[in-house]
Structure formats: structure tokens, C-alpha cells
């Protein structure tokens, strides 16, 4: 099914959760999957719900990586 991730179309399998998507993205980019925030259809999804939130066709997902600095 087709979704949008950070403004780009992406194909994912039915039943994919936000946690599964984050693992896929981190594997592709080599980035640490911790320290991220996810917005699904303009609503922030609490980290505690990533494993149980199933992505649906047409969802618009924004994944933001926190960056520390001083």
C-alpha cells in the first residue's frame, strides 16, 4: 500500500506498524531509531503507541530525529 513518509511516496506492506517502519528507515539510513518523534496525519503519536499503531493506505507520516548539541 502507498503512504507518504517525510514528503516522499513509499510502498509498505499491509499490517506495518510505526515501529516496523522506523526500523526499516533506520536500517536504510544507518541512523539510531531512538530519539525520534512521529507525526501521523498531523497528529503526534506517543512512542508508547508506535508498536501498536498500524499504518493505513494514504497515511502521511513525518519522522523527526532529535539532534543534541550544546
Automatic annotation (TrEMBL):
Cited CDD domains: Ubl_ThiS
Record-given protein name: Thiamine biosynthesis protein ThiS
Name of the gene encoding the protein in the UniProt record: thiS
Database matches in Pfam families: ThiS (PF02597)
NCBIfam families per the UniProt record, alphabetical: thiS (TIGR01683)
InterPro entries cross-referenced by the UniProt entry: Beta-grasp_dom_sf, Mopterin_synth/thiamin_S_b, Thi_S, ThiS/MoaD-like
Organism field: Hyphomonas atlantica
PANTHER family referenced in this protein's UniProt entry, alphabetically: SULFUR CARRIER PROTEIN THIS
Amino acid at each position: 500500500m502507498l503512504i507518504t513518509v517525510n514528503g516522499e511516496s513509499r510502498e509498505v506492506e499491509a499490517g506495518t506498524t510505526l515501529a516496523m517502519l522506523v526500523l526499516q528507515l533506520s536500517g536504510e539510513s544507518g541512523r539510531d531509531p531512538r530519539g525520534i518523534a512521529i507525526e501521523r496525519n498531523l497528529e503526534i503519536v506517543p512512542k508508547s503507541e508506535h508498536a501498536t499503531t498500524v499504518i493505513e493506505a494514504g497515511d502521511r507520516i513525518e519522522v523527526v530525529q532529535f539532534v543534541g548539541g550544546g
